[in-house]
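Justification of resources, computational component.

The compute hours requested in this renewal are based largely on the per-chain cost of generating structure records like the one below. Each record pairs the submitted sequence with a full structure-token output. That output is archived, and it is also reused by downstream analysis tasks.
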Amino acid sequence: MSIIQIPQEEKYFLRRSFIACTVFVALMLGCAGSRITSVALAQQPTPTNPPDNKNPPKIEKGDKNQKNFTAEQIAESSIYLYGSRVLLAQIRRNGVERGRICKPTCEEGKTEEAAYERRFVRGESMDKDKIRLDQKMPTLEYSLIYGGGRLWGIINGASFTPRQDATSTFLSQLRHSLDTLLRYKENGSTLSLVGKDKQKGLDLFVVDVVDKDKQSTRYYISARTLHVLWLEYEEPPPGLSTPLKYSRKFMDYRYAQGTLVPYRSVLLEDGKQIQETRILNVTYGIKLDDALFKSPEA
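The structure output for this chain reads:
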């Protein structure tokens, strides 16, 4: 009788699923009469498109189950599901991500599209990260580089100061991202549980993260899978004082080197889609030359 050999990736998935089910059952039993002392995990992700958020949600602040959870417990559970704090710090210490940035959609023939390559080195906190974003369009190629708390650009081998709108967009997407939640402790941010919500049959936890600069991001986290389905924030566009409402939806979740990654995201401004990003491939743990993050005039 032959023995079936299970591939290594399937072994990893089965082992993680077993742990997830065990902890999830323990969590549910603990909620009946005592405070939760372990993280909650959920089922293997099923891509779900979150509903549009033109109307603010009605938060169920008086829900009887809400007292069983804290913002920290929900955040830590999500962090564990995305790969755990230790694994995220080790695997995602540096890497290269390639994909497409489209305005407003990646549907063929209906867009302004740029191929991008994002290289990064993770610091002790997000303000100490090094990031290089190379973008290639049919008529233009340039790079935006973030390091030491500042942003500059490179085009045709020479450095330049990016326009205000490009700078604002880059820094905004850095401040209001998945990492803002996943690395809230490293960033010295504070958490608060707004409450529970239900939209189009989705049970959600709503958590606010406020960083050291008082920038606030609201996360809508699936109560079933603990995936971040979308986030929301308000910022004034360049040249205006009145803030606009932005939201970013996360879809097509997959595992990359043992960590959970949304391969598709959509950015909306006051309910209107203004950008779509699709990851084609991502590789972590690649050694990157520090010269990539330095100005050519340095």
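The chain has a mean pLDDT of 81. The longest strand covers residues 244-256.
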